[in-house]
């Protein structure tokens, strides 16, 4: 029998985590508090209730966003990481190394859902390379983002801030 193992972390790599177990409870929350916490139109989350979860590198910082919810994030790069409530913790889907593994199965906070969210798939789409004429600074871009896999040490070398 195999066990599902998933890894993830923040954008800069200062905070990493490991989840062991089957994750099936992925959602999107549209409430205004989640919008602000993620700086986005909604917050994609995956519950880690009932599975083994551990922080493998660094520690998250937290912000108490209400009398019942605490939110975790990387204190270095600001990546949203957790939604923590009395019934358990959820991890930001985008913080997983493979966020596509967690398609949402429900939505919460729909009273604050922004109407155009349902039409995003209708917008024209363009790969990054198409922006080179209008944004030539993208040519030669070097990412300092942590790769989407485990690393023994990060960052591998000093880099400019």
Give a short summary of the structure.
With 161 residues, the protein is mostly beta strands. It has one helix at 32-38; strands spanning 5-9, 16-20, 26-29, 43-47, 52-57, 61-64, 70-73, 80-85, 88-92, 106-108.
Topology:
Layout: E1 5-9, E2 16-20, E3 26-29, H1 32-38, E4 43-47, E5 52-57, E6 61-64, E7 70-73, E8 80-85, E9 88-92, E10 106-108
Parallel strand pairs: 3-10
Antiparallel strand pairs: 1-2, 2-5, 3-4, 4-9, 6-7, 7-8, 8-9
Structure report:
By secondary structure, the protein is mainly beta. The chain has 1 helix and 10 strands, in the order βββαβββββββ. The strands form 2 sheets. A 7-stranded mixed sheet has the order 6-7-8-9-4-3-10. It has a 3-stranded antiparallel sheet with strand order 1-2-5, with no helix packed on it.
Give short descriptive properties of this protein.
mainly beta; 3-stranded antiparallel sheet; 1 helix; 4% helix
Total beta strand runs: 10
Helix content range of the residues, please?
under 10%
Mass-distribution shape: globular
Q: What is the subunit arrangement here?
A: single chain
Profile the largest sheet: 7 strands, mixed
The rounded Rg comes to 17 Å
Q: Helix/strand/pairing class, anyone?
A: mainly beta
Strand content: 25-35%
Q: What is the H-and-E element order?
A: EEEHEEEEEEE
Report low-confidence residues grouped into runs of 5 or more: none
Distance between the termini: 45 Å
Number of helices: 1
Strand order across the biggest sheet?
A: 6-7-8-9-4-3-10
Instruction: Calculate the mean pLDDT score and round it.
Output: 92
